[in-house]
Amino acid sequence: MNWIQDFFQDLHFGLRMLRKSPGFAAIAILTLALGISANTAVFSVVNGVLLRPLAYQEPNQLYLIQVVWSQMSKFYPLIPANLPGYQIWRKQCHSFEDIAIAEGASADLTGSGEPKKTHGVRGSANLFALLGLSPALGRDFLPMEDEFGRGRVVILTSRFWRGYFHSDPAVIGRAIILDGVPFTVVGVLPASFHFPPQLGQLTSFGREIDFFEPLNGPKESEREFVGEFDFAAIGRLRTGVTPEQALAELNVIQAEITREVAKTDTGVDLKAAIIPLESEVVGAARHGMILLLAAVGVVLLVACVNLANMMLSRIPGRMREAAIRSALGATRWQLFRQMLTESLLLGIMGGALGIWLGSAGVTWLVRAAPPAVPRLDEVHMDSRALWFGVLLSLLTTVLAGVLPAWRASKGDVQETLKSGGAGAGEGRGTRRLRETLVVAETGLSTLLLIIAGLLTSSLFHLLRVNIGFATEKVLTVEVDLPPQRYSEPAARMHFYNALLDRLRGLPGVHASGWVSRLPLEGETSVSGFDVPPGGPFHFPANFRPASPDYFAAMGIRLLHGRIFSERDRGRKVVVVSESVAKRFWPGQNPIGRTCLTFWGGREEDEVIGVVSDIRTVKLDAAPVMMVYVPDWFGGKDLRVPQSAGIVLRTSGDERGVEPSVREAIHATDREVPIAAMRSMSEMVSESVAPRRFQMLLALLFAGSALFLASLGIYGVIAYSIEQRRRELGIRSALGAQVSDLHRMVLRQGMSPVMAGLVAGLSTSFVIGRLMKSLLFSVKATDPLTMGTVAFLVTIVALLACFIPSRRASRVDPMVALRYE
């Protein structure tokens, strides 16, 4: 049992030594806590997003089934599924145990106060069974509820049940009014259930899902084989069946569907593609998460190097202690173990503080992260993250403590005892080792600063891109008309016209208009556009019903021709975007040309105007081909949307007219809910939120690393000056000028800094290529970023060297010579 006794003796002695140096202990613990807290918090996010499997039964067997439309694959390599295709897959594809589909849905909840816009999922009745889930209250959907007229039931999410219904279990069996229709609540989902809103890039799921409803039969537009491709299809692979076998069977079925479609619509070639559901959910966030984890790991490595440097700085002062203990019989192993125990104590205290700060950091990260980060609602500090923090603490202190402990146990006992205080100084080997650590710190800090600089430059360029519309003094309001009251297009058109008349009369409003989907809110109503006698459906475009005043209110420039007006009523006219004009009539005047549109039926229309391109999906995505149509487009089937975005151009602060706008909407119809009211500047800011979040974290980590590196540089120079105090006194006594001493100290301090700077710049060329997907209009070898970082690191290093160099220049020769 001697080793247990020895271990506790080492602990007791280590605590006593740390109490004798409270300043060193505090800085070392805070340095460790900074690195460990950041790593634990980021690991919790990465664990929740990337590492933890989806919370479904056997999630590795779940695959997303998508469609490849060969004629459209140049523009859209993969598109969602549609209802007729799903019905055939489920009957004929035996490679999957079952297949379910889901699409985004929204409804106005009325009957209890002001109408509330709710977001949900319309899915097949087998969706929860396929995922291996049962409601916490009530029952699952029944197969018959997929049939038309029998699906007026909903299952609520736990969050919505707790918030809106105050966790009332009696809600089961109660009727709620959605879009003017009573729906019976038949179940409540468990709080642990999370449906991936990231599938919204294929459909239209909201970030917060309130309810699920069954299919309730196909809608009129969902009956065609080539219509309404907006469902996410999820299949569970049978045991023993490979994904390749399942894909082959699906494509046999797709070939048969293609032959059936060819009877009425030629030029359509449909194939299938399957993607692991987990990969689709995580999506493009994987690269950003890996970069984030690597960056915070570098911060920890810098903290580790800095701690090793601090412990090495104490070695010369403890060499005499080690020599005396050796003379009294202590072995090198005992000396090594004692020093390592002190490092372990620092790790335990720093790790405990770091894990506690990390738990708060997880909460901050989840709140600060943009909604685009997948699985964010599943992120929390679990036992895996806790053990990660503990192991990280132990590993960090071992890495930081081994080198100093080895140097302390390696000293020459006789030389140290004979030399007394003077000889107990820092040897050349130890000094070189400390300078090598400064090289590593500087190089790692430089690398992080370059990454942060590239992300900052990307965001700067992104915010300066030509978005095609105005952002200042523009207010947007999204309204959703209740389907039961506004089932007819004429009723919807009357509401929009009446509302615009009220809005035009408001003080401070210069122009107002409506459009079916606002800019930066994604693609919708994608259909074919061609020039006769071209082939059908070769070039997909986004169709947008809009009022004539929308373009002036939104600040979209008219390039050629004119906007449709009342004098065009009844005529088949369209306004196209600049990209459409360049694609079909390059170098020609498109005004008066005839085009073929497939949205709502194949017909010929006249182009009367060309407007500038706008950013539709996000700022870093190229503009899509856009076709604007008037509300009378489609003849007797008026193209007036059920939901629309109202745009107002104001003379002053757009927020100042919000109360008046709200009153105008309620005065037009009090039952119409306001889904959202935002300024266009806010929408642009939201679109760049993921990049801004990455940039802020990179700047935070890079700044922390640079701060730690500057402490390391200062520590090396300051301790070296203290050890060379006698030498400096002799130099001063022999006539050395103050400037000479300054140059000597700066040269000693800046030499490892320059070496680290060169190493960091060289490494950044490799790292920059790996993060190309995260950059926008910036090269990975951007000279401005490289030069700025090099200048910043040099200035910080000079400041870190300046204080010790001033101290060196003020050494009194007589005091220094009497020191020993």
A few lines on this structure:
The protein is α+β, with helices and mostly antiparallel strands and 820 residues long. Strands 2-3-8-5-7-6 form a six-stranded mixed β-barrel. Strands 13-14-19-16-18-17 form a six-stranded mixed barrel. A hairpin with a 5-residue loop joins strand 2 and strand 3.
What would you say this structure looks like, in words?
The structure is a single chain. Strand 2 and strand 3 (116-123) form a beta hairpin. The strands form three sheets. A six-stranded mixed barrel has the order 2-3-8-5-7-6. The protein is 50% helix and 16% strand. The chain is built from 22 helices and 21 strands. The protein is an alpha+beta fold.
Put simply, the count of helices is 22
Mean pLDDT, rounded to whole units? 83
The end-to-end distance, rounded to whole angstroms, is 45 Å
Strand content: 15-25%
The percentage helix is: 40-55%
Layout of secondary structure:
Elements: H1 2-20, H2 22-51, E1 62-69, H3 83-92, E2 96-110, E3 116-123, H4 127-131, E4 137-138, E5 153-156, H5 158-164, E6 175-178, E7 181-188, E8 211-213, E9 232-237, H6 243-261, E10 270-276, H7 277-282, H8 285-327, H9 332-368, H10 383-409, H11 413-423, H12 428-463, E11 474-480, H13 489-504, E12 509-515, E13 526-530, E14 539-545, H14 550-554, E15 558-561, E16 573-577, H15 578-584, E17 594-597, E18 603-611, E19 626-629, E20 643-650, H16 658-668, E21 674-679, H17 680-687, H18 689-723, H19 725-733, H20 738-770, H21 783-809, H22 813-818
Parallel strand pairs: 3-8, 5-7, 14-19, 16-18
Antiparallel strand pairs: 1-9, 1-10, 2-3, 2-6, 2-9, 4-7, 5-8, 6-7, 11-20, 11-21, 12-20, 13-14, 13-17, 15-18, 16-19, 17-18
Helix pairs in contact: 1-9, 2-8, 2-9, 2-10, 3-6, 8-10, 8-11, 8-12, 8-18, 9-10, 12-18, 12-20, 12-21, 13-16, 18-20, 18-21, 20-21
